Hints:
With 285 residues, this protein is of the alpha+beta class. It has helices at 22-26, 44-57, 66-79, 127-131, 154-165, 208-216, 231-235, 267-283, and strands at residues 2-5, 8-11, 29-37, 40-41, 85-92, 112-119, 133-139, 170-175, 178-182, 186-191, 194-197, 223-226, 239-244, 248-255, 258-259. The model has no long low-confidence stretch (mean pLDDT 98). It binds 4'-deoxy-4'-aminopyridoxal-5'-phosphate (PMP). 4'-deoxy-4'-aminopyridoxal-5'-phosphate (PMP) binds at residues 33, 181, 184-186, 205, 207-210, 243-245.
Amino acid sequence: RTVYVNGEYLPETEAKVSIFDRAFLMADGVYEVTSVLDGKLIDFDGHAKRLQRSLSELDIAAPCTMDELLDIHRELVKLNNIEEGMIYLQVTRGAPDDRDFVFPDPETTKPTLVLFTQNKPGLADSPAAKKGIKVISIDDIRWGRRDIKTVQLLYPSMGKMMAKKAGVDDAWMVEDGFVTEGTSNNAYFIKGNKIVTRALSNDILHGITRAAVLRFAAEAQMEVEERNFTIEEAQQADEAFITSASTFVMPVVEIDGVSLGEGVPGPRALRLREIYLDESRKAAV
Ligand code: PMP
């Protein structure tokens, strides 16, 4: 694989980042994952805008312009022949000369920019989407700025492990009795023709796929209600699903051991997935 590190395209075995990099020592960095379909980028603009916001909330300098970032994405897609897959991008506060809690001087310590591709043939035609996924609920014990897409992913990783140990696919996190989001996705249920999902705030990541799916809801003759909901309410729903850049719209068929509807992906979630994929392919760059 050819990867990108601070201005250079290199074989992955030759790519290097300092041990003093703030992301390595302090999780002081942000990331984005953009999917690729038909060799083109899905919603690049949305991801670039969210990256800029994450950087500015943390006072990390942008490593380059968003146009340059688009060029790097496209170059990596070309160099690695990606038809379907993902591009991972990470920006960190950079690598000062020593470990120190205080932010380094941005004049001397420049941000680190790393990108690599993940080849995933069959990403859109996913077997998991035909079967649906099962989730458990876990406590949300993350920090209070989940709207910033930081590389601080230890708890989400632990959540995936709890799910794995429970023999299911993923976990939905619950805080003060209400679902916040999935470990790496936004969470929804469907009742009648209504899609219910938590409203945007600092409590959840502002999913790029979420924004697109809610925009497309009207095309599926569905209404959107952004509000808090409990696991019990989702368990009694007709359908449920998650969204993320790498899973698109993924049906959820079981929550904490309770099957939803027939226990198979529901027609509305599958329709939303179809619309999302169609529209995204059309708008891909
Ligand atoms: N919430 C969390 C916690 C996530 O990690 C992600 C994906 N990284 C999402 C939601 C979905 O965001 P997006 O649709 O932009 O991938």
